[in-house]
Amino acid sequence: MKRSLLVRSVVTMSVAGLLLTGCARESETPTAAASSPAVVTPTAPVSVWNVDEEQDATWTRQLKEIKQMLQRVHGAKSTKAAEVRTEQMIDLEKVLTEMAAAGGPEGVGHVACEVMPIQLLSYEDSDSADMVSMQIGAYWSTAVAAAANQPTASFKDVELDARMKQECDDVHRDVLKTMGLRTLNKMYHLDRVQTTS
Questions:
Q1: pTM of this prediction?
Q2: Which residue from 8, 57, 158, 186 could staple onto 105, CB 3.0 to 4.6 Å apart?
Q3: Which residues of 150-171 are buried (b: 16+ CB within 10 A; e: fewer)?
Q4: Which of 131, 116, 109 is nearest to 47 (CA)?
Q5: Burial of 38 (0-12, 13-18, 19+ CB in 10 A)
Q6: Residues of the chain with pLDDT under 50
Q7: How far, in Å, CA of 6 to CA of 13, rounded?
Q8: Are 55 and 102 in contact (CB under 8 A)?
């Protein structure tokens, strides 16, 4: 009988001890969580297209016309077709630069989604990825300089790759595949010397 009471006392004390330990640990948990540093997740750059509606409509019409002309001569090998492609790419560069300047860094994603697929129409499937990347990179070197209002601005400075991916992920993937790149920041960049007045 005495032994039975002794065993019960030991068991009761052990259970009480475990409960107290558990309570103590639970009371420590919020303090530990509160003292742990917060994890900061980097945010994607915001892509914004906020330009004059009438001017935007004009660019949209011009882009449509250029696209139609390039589609007509796509794959053609004649001298006349080459001349048409050259003329259309000159016109396209003008529209591209105007759009980039108006939209600024925040608008380059929208501009890329509208313009790059049309630029790719001037190339054939047989053209090397390096050549396409080099030539389109040269066009965009002018565009990002206009967007940033800084002659030496790089693709990374205006976050061209991230903004285009945010704006049109599927088109962004197709463009990268055609150029054989993982990021638009690796396109050929035509460096411009900043002149001082």
A1: 0.75
A2: 158
A3: eeebebeebbbbbbbbbbbeeb
A4: 109
A5: exposed
A6: 1-36, 39-41, 193, 195-197
A7: 11
A8: yes
